[in-house]
Amino acid sequence: MQIEKQKELLALLDGSVTLQNDKIQILDADKVRANIQRLVEAAVLEETALRHTACYLIRRIDLAMDVVPSSIHDLYMAHGRGDIPNDYTTPAINLRGLPFYAASAIFRIANEIDAGSFIFEIARSEIGYTEQSPAEYTANILGAAIAEGYTGPVFIQGDHFQTSPARYAKNPEKEVQAIKDLTAEAIKAGFYNIDIDSSTLVDLSKESIAEQQKLNYGIAAAISAFIRDIEPEGITVSIGGEIGEVGGHNSTEEELRAYLDGYNAELEKIMPGAAGMSKISIQTGTSHGGVVLPDGSLAEVTIDFDILHDLGVVGRESYGIGGTVQHGASTLPEDAFDKFVTAEALEVHLATNFQNIMFDHLPKEMVEEMYAYVDKHYERKPSQTIEQFHYKNRKRAIGAYKKQIWGLPEAKKQEIAQAWEKQFRNLFARLSVADTKKYVEKYITLVKTEPKPEDYFPKDVQAEDVSDLAD
After folding, report:
1. Which pairs with CB-CB distance under 8 Å and at least 24 residues apart come from 412-416?
2. Domain segments of the chain: what residues?
3. Looking at the domain covering 68-362+408-447, what would its CATH class be?
4. 273-327: pLDDT as tens digits
């Protein structure tokens, strides 16, 4: 990596950081915080070489400022042992547009309420249609932490690193390798939490539940062994699995036991003694993005919180994992979120409603242009109204309009950020994550893994089709 490019970008920080003998030195931490957004914008908007260099520099600066990408594995395993009370639920938040602004709001709240147990994540599908590489996403999150003066562990997660059934059927080895390649890229970028989702390959035509789950747990075990082989020294990447595709039938105890028994046996066979999963995602009645009615509004959804609770107990008591994970929850009524804590859910995934908030505040002309983009590039099903089609597919225009969204007047971006902050405050209160930093500080050991320059110049690859993958 050219030192000249690094020094060119460091000039954006107004003399607050120097590079001497390839060592980062912080001269004025307050100035770094005041100017880091300029470096984040370079990581998002600059031409290729400078963009990658900016991502690399932010990774280095964050370590010098004690902002440390970390794994939540040990915290979750403490839940599994009963060392931490199950009286809060960790939010895992997907940020599709303007992630720096949204993450800044989250870190501001966390500083105020001493929250430590929260996760930033992005799915395989979202990486594609939002045009955010793992390194770019990490740069946004860590840059926001620096800007807000947040220090300590930051949990960044690969959400739904999911197998495509169609591509798997065509070429199984190639599809599994694609997930391994993405996982390796993500870990290099500081994603030390990975959710493996091969639940798309559960075969309900098989007679026994064990046979139905066999391909699911087999692939999860193989990818887990791969993760254990490449994870940085001193870090146990938190791995999650999934027993039922979100939007399908509600999960059962028999499925959970068949999956975890098979997974643990298979992982022991592949890599004896390797650490397994820290959590398990189940289906309780939600769907990603909500169920869209013909007029574009969302149908009410009923969640079986008893399943969430009971399977969490089985996971902790029989398998020692932290508990169960709920997907597809952000569009639920506000009063539902208190129930996740009552049901002792370990983690809840939140995405679509934050996207909805952004679209509600974007200029009308821009939204109309984005809808026109969707109309041009995606096909509407005969059964869909135009409102349903736009609601379900407008996310696919976010990457194409990334520069325009970032180019909005600062006042407009702050307006969106303020709306997000209001929502985050409410969710954090309902999920009871205040005062969780003490648990994080007790159970998470900071491991500062220096990024490698060669990892920040990936080969150009053709964008993959993510239309059949979950968020």
Report:
1. 412/361, 412/363, 413/98, 413/101, 414/101, 415/361, 416/98, 416/101, 416/357, 416/358, 416/361, 416/362
2. 3-64, 68-362+408-447
3. alpha beta
4. 999 999 999 988 755 444 555 665 555 556 789 999 999 999 999 999 999 998 8
